[in-house]
Amino acid sequence: MNKGIKLNTLPQELVNQIAAGEVIERPASVVKELMDNSIDAQATKIEIKIVNGGIDLIEVSDNGNGIPQENLPSIFKTHTTSKISSFEDLNNLLTMGFRGEALSTILSVANVNLISKYVDSDIANEIVFKDFDNHTVKKAARESGTVVSVRNIFENIPARRKFLKSAQTEYKKILDTLYPYFLIYPNISFVVWKDSKKVIDLRNIPNAKADIVEKERIESLMKEDFVKRMVKLFYDGGGIKVKGLVGHPSDHQKRISNQYIFVNRRPVWDNGIARAILSGYERYIPFGEKVPFIVLIDINPDLIDVNVHPRKEEIRFLNPFRAYSAVEEAVKKAITGVTSFKMDTPMINIQRDGKIYTPRDISFKSNQSGSVRDSLLFSKEVFSDTGYVKSIASEKSEIEFKDEEQGIRNIFQIFNKYIVIEFDSDILWIVDQHAAAERITFEKLKKSNGDSIEKQNLLVPYTVQFSESELIVLREMKEFFSEFGIEYTVTDTGIEISSTPVEFVNTDFKKFFDEIFALSEDISNLSKEINKLKEDILATMACHGSVRSGQYLHREEMMDIYKKLIVCENPYSCPHGRPAVWKLKLSDIDMNFERTY
């Protein structure tokens, strides 16, 4: 006879620990939940203290309305909330925190202490937990608001604690969580302490309203020039309002950074909205490039579901197409206005530093007879297919660097872009001067052990500003860059470069480091992936430290590039895979002109 299976009722603490796996993933999750509560309490000042990446301590204090003494024990019970009482309330919710899971799940995975002074009370009260179900409430000293201290996260769950990353990585995740709050609430002052050092101090902006993007707040937070050129968005129709700021088309970049989406003031990420924003830039930026944006969408709460993600990081639109169309239209209208031309009639617009920015049609068109490459009359031998680099570099059959071809009859430059070399053996080379210089610099860096790099000490340090999260990576990679001749000191707001390889003297280091950061989807992993990404980093360095396209060259400089290129291990392409040399035989040129004599 089979015995029945005995069922166990799980203790509430274990239930909360299981639930915490969805709600509390890492220290940044704790910060998010506590920030939501402080904002819902109508705080105008919030202070965050982080110790050891939040693993040892997270403390969030505010000057909000506080919590009545009689409610202190209840707020730590599962699904206890003042925000909702029915499903209809959930549909119309505009507050940040609402599930009533935050404090209960945090308590189940960490040591929690809370002191609060309710706005209508004369004294503050503190709740102290001896264990999950054992607590005491006593009087405490506090002028206003609430302070929540969370210590030793996951200490009682070793299996989860071991999955936490380094303190620096966890701190970077916390900053990623905090930045949206800093942007969307300019009416609140924020202070961040990292290991007892004040790292962020953002004063509230007088007369600023919540959910209005203020350039002053963005500039003080991001400290980058592109903010001054950002373009205002506005759209209002069909129950959807779109506002915010988007990057000027001239500020496009390779990496995804400084991109924020808010729906009804809630920081979320929605791939459809992100694609709609980029669609608004169609024809104005190169394909695959990214732009910074801070987009706010106000929509009837009935038209979205905010409860689809345990940590409230995603939403679902009842009619996604309507939302995406509204965003795309808002971006198109804003970009068209700032560039002063119609979509179908591009015109020149003068931009920063006297440079001319002309929107481009980036679609690739072919003529009637064939592809783009065919229309440019490329040699069929050289450009036989898209596998050019692999086939040429491996077989080395199309461009041979033979001794008999090195009797140079003539060498000159065209378009300040290409070097044309005519050999005595009736061979013509067209060399892409930038691609060739990249290859030369790349192999030089790759073979370097640090000592062989010729350095240039700068009389005045070159200063570049970065965000706090970027500075974390730059601190960790300082030794790596030093090995290749780039010496810098990390300050509170950026870096001061004191020495560079001689080829890098005129480098735009802001752009240079942005391209380095773009090599990894998560820049916090860059320092850990240095060995894997080393050649990509060196390729980026080679690009910035080489002769540029559009640069006039003297004959001696052209000869120097030629002589150094022919001794490279791979003289056929730049380190990014683009062709460096196009070889033409006199017989091929004659054939093109149907000349037989």
Characterize the structure shown:
This protein is α+β, with helices and mostly antiparallel strands. The chain folds into three domains: 12-201, 2-Layer Sandwich (Heat Shock Protein 90), CATH 3.30.565; 224-357, Ribosomal Protein S5, domain 2 (2-Layer Sandwich), CATH 3.30.230.10; 399-597, formyl-coa transferase, domain 3 (2-Layer Sandwich), CATH 3.30.1540.20. It has 18 helices and 24 strands. The strands form six sheets. The protein has an eight-stranded mixed beta sheet, with helices on one face. Strand 22 and strand 23 form a beta hairpin. The longest helix has 20 residues, at 320-339. It is elongated and about 100 Å long. It starts with 11 loop residues before the first helix and ends in a 5-residue tail after the last helix. 35% of the residues are buried.
CATH homologous superfamily assignment of the largest domain: MutL, C-terminal domain, dimerisation subdomain
Biggest β-sheet strands, sense, barrel: 8 strands, mixed
Shape: elongated
Report the average pLDDT across residues: 81
**CATH C-level of the largest domain:** Alpha Beta
Could you tell me the radius of gyration in angstroms? 30 Å
Q: Look up the CATH topology of the largest domain.
A: formyl-coa transferase, domain 3
Q: How much strand? A: 15-25%
What's the N-to-C terminus distance? 103 Å
The beta-strand count equals 24
* Helix run count: 18
Number of domains: 3
Topology:
Blueprint (H helix, E strand, L loop, with lengths): L11 H12 L3 H14 L4 E7 L5 E6 L24 H5 L10 H8 L1 E7 L6 E8 L2 E7 L4 E7 L6 H4 L5 H18 L4 E6 L2 E6 L12 H8 L8 E7 L2 E7 L12 E5 L2 E3 L2 H9 L13 E7 L4 E2 L10 E2 L2 H20 L9 E2 L5 E2 L14 H4 L12 H8 L12 E7 L3 E6 L3 E6 H15 L7 E11 L2 H9 L1 H6 L3 E4 L3 E8 L7 H9 L12 H15 L10 H11 L15 E5 H7 L5
Parallel strand pairs: 1-7, 11-13
Antiparallel strand pairs: 1-2, 2-6, 3-4, 3-6, 4-5, 7-8, 9-10, 10-13, 11-12, 14-15, 16-17, 18-19, 19-20, 20-24, 21-23, 22-23
